[in-house]
Amino acid sequence: MWKVIIVDDEVLVRRGLASTIPWAQYGMQVAGDFSNGMKALEAMELLRPDVVITDIRMPQMDGLTLLKELRKQYPETIPVILSCHNDFEYAKEAISLGAVDYLVKTTMDDQEVDRTLSKVQAKLAERKSVDELLRQIEQSKRLERQAELRMILAGGENVGAKEPSVAVKEAHRTENECFLLLAARPWAPAHTQPLYTNCLRLEERFPEETELFCTLDAEPYMVVLLWFPSALSALEVQHKVQIWSGRLLQLFGCRREELFIGAAPPFSSISQAKPAFEQAKRGQEAYFYDEGVKTFYMIEGSAALQEASGVLFTGEDKQLWVEALVRNAVPEARALFEQLTKRWRPGVSSAAVKEMASSMIGMIRFARHKHQPSLPATAVQELQQMGKLSQVKQLVSSELAVWEQEAEGSSGLNSLRPEIQKALAYIQQHLHDEVKMSDVADHVHLSRSHFSALFKQAVGKTFLEYMMEQKMEWTKEQLKHTHKKIYEIASEIGFSDYKYFTRCFKEYSGMTPKDWREQHVHKSEYAVLPIREEQAL
């Protein structure tokens, strides 16, 4: 049904027209009525009517002004003038503004209304035919674009001799342009069948000539080729891959583990699309990359999107790991290390693996130094740039080996009472919670007073001093090695009062968190950090 709105400052006229004319007979329905042109114009974006029947003389915005705005903003809308004035000048100006007819309220009858609405019907049918022709032309262009991209990916003849004309308009070409290619492969056969349909849907949603899509005949892949006027940095590539990965997942309506998405590094000529496609396919088969929070990206390789299955490092795992370390149980810690790292298998997110490795190293250093020092920027960069599981495992193993040497040659830590060792592990595990001394005392089965005395004797600090030290050291690590906002860090470490958190940090470090971050963090250090999903989108 074609949508009609009626604009007239007389409510009886609006209601009369809406109720007395057999709109359905003309394939039309009244979608709304308004008392002046201003209100009608405000509703245009929401209602998108096909026909506007408007009076001329109205407050705020008259009918002729409304027609001028419609012609400017909504040229496809068909206007009809309705007035009490049988004035040639009004009619002349209305027709010049695109009105198909001019109805006079005082003289119009059923025959005149029928004649006018029949004219409108003819215009709408003509517009529909033009729209259908344009749709067919656009569909033909899309098929041509898809066929040309398939030819490029298949390594067709003369691909390198001439850049494909449909890829990017000549007016858009730039000297420093680059391309980015993504390949998506559904895991389940059920999602493979609608590949072609989904490709057409992408064409409809993103019809820009800087974005090309196609499916392959011989392989179950959907390919997305993107053009950019200038070169992209590694972080910008992560951003773009994250956005398009999300779009593809939404398009297929499947879970992350059901759709593998690989992306090749940027390239400068569309003739390089075929080797880039091969790289993207290898990226789908691999599972360990430098990445953002959700999307993989490896400088020397490809990008892939895959969800980690389950939680790698549970709270119980952390408790066992910390307790083995603080008790200097060398064989137990080594066996636990081997057990835990067996979870680093194909299909597990590299971000989750690296986060787990970072936590394990932090706990090793906690056991060695009794506080959690910030990892140096070089260590963070080394971890983030590792592209193989064996490299990450070797890094953690090296840290563990240093701890083993110290544990085997140390008598001081071995002399700690089991209750204190267990308490330190409990504190480490619940550092982000509001832990009270009575909670820890209950955990190690000691009275509050007895635990307080033993703790200060063993650690050299009161319980509150030690807790504050651990929270502030963790805060420093977050300030130095993440992009988190300071209030987010405060909330994560258990401070609900931001001003109190700032005061505590200043008392501990001698400066505010903001000043400490500016003094200890260099811009170059931020470059190694992964993009957060909420920052990228």
| Percent helix range | 40-55%
Gyration radius, to the nearest Å? 34 Å
The domain tally reads 3
CATH superfamily annotation of the largest domain: Homeodomain-like
- Please mark out the parts with pLDDT under 50 across 5 or more consecutive residues, or reply none: 157-172, 285-310, 523-537
CATH level-3 fold name of the largest domain: Arc Repressor Mutant, subunit A
Q: How would you describe the shape?
A: elongated
Number of discrete helical segments: 23
Top CATH class of the largest domain: Mainly Alpha
Gap between N and C termini, in Å?
38 Å
Mean pLDDT reading: 76
Strand adjacency order, main sheet: 2-1-3-4-5
Q: In the CATH hierarchy, what is the architecture of the largest domain at level 2?
A: Orthogonal Bundle
GO molecular function, one term: DNA-binding transcription factor activity
Subcellular location: Cytoplasm
Main location: cytoplasm
Pfam families: HTH_18, Response_reg
